[in-house]
Each structure stands twice: as structure tokens, then as C-alpha cells.
Amino acid sequence: AGSLAVLARLESPSMAATVVDEIGIAAVRGQGSRIWDEAGREYLDLTAGSGVHALGHGDPGVLAAMHAQLDRFAHGGWQVSSPARADLSEQLAARLPWPDPVLLWCTTGSEAVEAALKTARCATGRRQVLGFLGGYHGKTAGALAVTANSAYRSVATEVPVAGLSLPYPVAPGYLHRDAAQQQGLRFGQEILEHPDFGAADVGGLIVETVQGAGGMNAAAPGLLSELRSFCSARGQLLIVDEIFTGFGRTGAGFGFEHEGVVPDLVVLGKALGGGLPLSLVAGPRALLDAVPPLRQTSTFSANPVACAAGAAVLKRLAADDLAARAAALGERLVAGVAAAAPPHVRLETLGRGLMVGVRIAEAPADDRAAFTRAVLARMRSMGVFALRGGTDGAVVKWTPPLTIAEDEIDQSVGVFAQALAMQSA
Ligand code: PMP
Predict the structure, then answer these.
(1) Is ligand 1 within 6 A of the CB of residue 132?
(2) Which domain of life is it from (predicted)?
(3) Domain, as residue range, for 379
(4) Atom number, ligand 1, closest to the C-alpha of residue 244
């Protein structure tokens, strides 16, 4: 009866078709890296809510900060400052790479990407921003314009969107971990020769240091430095989208720190709000102030409860050096996966830190995406859930809380190996 009730809720007729539920769990409670459903079943959550919960579900420090702010006031609007916002601003200023960073507060990741694109236009006077193959920056119109996924983009290109004037150039991708896929650093040349746009009108590049939705492709060594020089030489802004990779997930405070590169703009979200919606664009004042007053605001931006939660997250990340922990646990995970493939299955590990993708590169099935979906369903029935990604749909994604225990990493690998073996039998 319990599972029937769960099913009824999952198949609620109010769900729009675009919201595909590949996990299939009606969660009622979360704690640390675990979630429980209505029937009381326990699951290990390898998604951390799409990389949001750096400290796991229900962290006591985050909850206490949220509760305290709720007791004061829940929402004042961007026109009203709050000690919570000031506290988080101070935390961020200490970690961002410019002497006096300016923050443009938003609510969702996509919205902050829109704000970054607008900033690039205002600051450079040029209209275009380029994204990368495999890149993902959101599904609102502007963010979609720099997102490479053709299935996602087709909706916006086929259906006219009023006022949408951003062009859709996508630079060739160089973000594959496998050096053989990089084809050398022909990046600059390909942009200049791209037939769809004139380089003179390009105001910036937007890049992830590890492509999340694209399948956990880590930036090849040297790529970010190359992009930095490329942008500086052309007066373009280097916009680094750290929405997924920020706050320790890749084993450094921010992904760009691995190469000591200083971006022009950084976009943050996900873990920033400690589980509540919060995002921003950060950069030096000269760039952010190019956007005139009132051109980029939104009702729920810098929500004080989210800011209080985020400040608690940032303090804990620093106090416990969770970036170092992410690096170490990522290595443990990748080492475990190396031994997980049964005969006739070949696995590739991708990503960095606790942002890991395992591509099922060869499987005893023609349709690797379907094979991967079946492996995930088997894992779920064994109490572990994860999301699928990659342009081939054959990447199993590990983006757990940075606080996940070592034996939970081992459990996830063990269950993955078992599911692979069962699906291959
Ligand atoms: N950029 C990146 C790198 C992301 O991973 C995401 C979300 N997965 C976004 C942008 C969009 O953020 P949101 O879903 O909060 O709008």
C-alpha cells in the first residue's frame, strides 16, 4: 500500500511533461547524504539536490541560521539590506579574487547567467557572448543562447521568443579530459573563422571549469589560462560559471583557482544558498557598475534566509577545509570505480573532486543511454540514487555532499558495480 501511495503522488496529473522524473522518489526527509521516502525506505543521495547541498541535508548549523533569520524576517526585497546579506557579502569578499568585489544578487543560476550576459554587453558595448560545446548555463532565453545542447535550444529557436536578440554562436569545445579529444589549442582560430558572427562583436566567453550537465568534462590543463590570454588580448570578458563547481566541489574554493586564473566575472549559485535559491554575479566594480541602476533586479534576490544559510555554509567550508576533503574523496571514488567494470563494460571517469562522471563507454547493449538508465534503476532499488548526464546520456553523475562519509562513497561504488554486473548478465 505504501508504494502505491508513493506512485500516486509521483504521477500527479499536475506535473508538466517537461519535468521528467528520472529518480522516482517522493522524499519526506533528508539527513546528511541520505533521504527517506514515504514508505520509510532509506536512500543514499548522490545528487545532493543537483549539487546544492555542500554540507548535506539538514545540516544543524545551516538550519539554525535559517531559523534565526526566519524569526527576524523572511523577505524584505532587494531594496532592504540585512545583516545576513552583509555577513554573506563579507564571507564572499574574502574568497573572491578581486580586491573589492561587487556583487549583483539574483535568485536562480539561470537568472545570474542572464545578469552576467547583460553585464558583458553593458561593459564592452558588444552584443555577443560565446559558450562552449557541452556547456550548460540554464534554460531561460539568454542562458540558453550560450548553452550548447541542441535539444534544449531548439525550443527557443523554433518558437520565436519576443525580444530575444542574442545570437547563438557556440565555440568548439576543448573541455574533454581526454587529451586526444582536444585537437590542440585551435580555439582562437576557430572563433575568428566562425562564419556565423564577427569576432569584433564578441564581448565575452562563458565557460564552466567542469561541465556539469554536459557530462562532467573537466577543463583540459592550460585551457583556462589560454582563454584568459585570448580574452585579454581582445578586450573580451572571461565569464566563469562556477554555479556547480564553486564552493569546494572540485577540490579548490573555485574551479579557476586550480590554474590561478582571475576571471572578469564569476557566476555563483547552487551551494551559495545552503539549500535555498540564491545566486549572483561577482566582479570588479568597473564592470558591474556598467549596468545602470534598476536594469537588473528581481523580487526574491538576496533572500535573507538564503543569505543566512549561505553564510553558515561558507564558514563551515573554510573551518573544515571541505575542498581538500572533496579532492581526497574524489580520488577514493575514482579508484573504486576503476575496479567496478564487469566483462564487456568499459568505464571512463571524468570530472574533478566530488564532481565525478562515470561514462559507460562500452556496454553489452546497443543503446548505452537505455543501459545506463537501467543501471540507475537497479541502483535505486538497492537504495542509492544518482542522475544521468552527458551528451550521450551514458554518464552516471556523482555530486554528493562534500561531507559524505568514506564508507558511503564505498557503498555507492559497490552498488554501482553490482548494478552493472546485474544489467550485463
Ligand atoms: N550553470 C550551471 C553550470 C549549472 O550547472 C546550472 C544548473 N544545473 C545553471 C547554470 C542553471 O542554474 P539554475 O538551474 O539554478 O537556473
Answers:
(1) no
(2) Bacteria
(3) 2-58+321-424
(4) 5
pLDDT of residue 157: 59
Cα angle, residue 42 at apex, residues 409 and 355 outer, rounded to 5°: 30
- We report the CATH number of the domain holding residue 407 as 3.90.1150.10
Q: Which of 270, 279, 355, 388 is the pocket-test mutation for ligand 1 (most atoms within 8 Å of CB)?
A: 270
Q: What is the dihedral of CA 245, 246, 251, 253, to 10 degrees?
A: 160
Domain identity same for 46 and 139 = no
Provide the terminal-to-terminal Cα distance of the chain, rounded to the nearest Å. 32
CA of 211, closest atom in ligand 1:
3
- Same domain, yes or no: 208 and 313: yes
Nearest CA to ligand 1 atom 2: 137
Same domain, 263 and 329: no
Q: Identify the pLDDT of residue 168.
A: 40
Q: Is 269 in the pocket of ligand 1 (CB under 6 A)?
A: yes
**Domains of the chain: total:** 2
pTM for the whole structure: 0.93
- The predicted structure's pLDDT at residue 152: 80
Of the residues 243, 303, 387, which should be mutated to test ligand 1's pocket, given the most ligand atoms within 8 Å of the CB? 243
Q: What pLDDT was estimated at residue 11? A: 58
379 and 326 in a single domain? The answer is yes
pLDDT digits (tens, 9 = 90+) for 144-168: 878 877 778 776 655 445 444 444 4
CB-ligand 1 contact for 107 (6 Å cutoff): no
- Considering the domain architecture, whether residues 37 and 185 belong to the same structural domain is answered as no
Residues for the chain: how many in total? 425
Q: What single DSSP character describes residue 271? A: G
Residues (pLDDT < 50) of the chain are 1-4, 6, 8, 159-160, 162-186, 188
State whether 254 and 359 are in the same domain. no
Whether ligand 1 lies within 6 angstroms of the CB of 244 is answered as yes
- Ligand 1: distance of its center to the CA of 276 in Å? 14
Last residue in a domain, options 319, 342, 369: 319
b/e burial code for range 240-266 (CB count within 10 A of at least 16 → b): bbbbbbbbbbbbbbbbbbbbebebbbb
Q: What is the predicted pLDDT for the residue at 12?
A: 63
Q: What angle do CA 19, 24, 29 make, to 5 degrees?
A: 105
Identify the residue whose C-alpha is closest to ligand 1 atom 15: 109
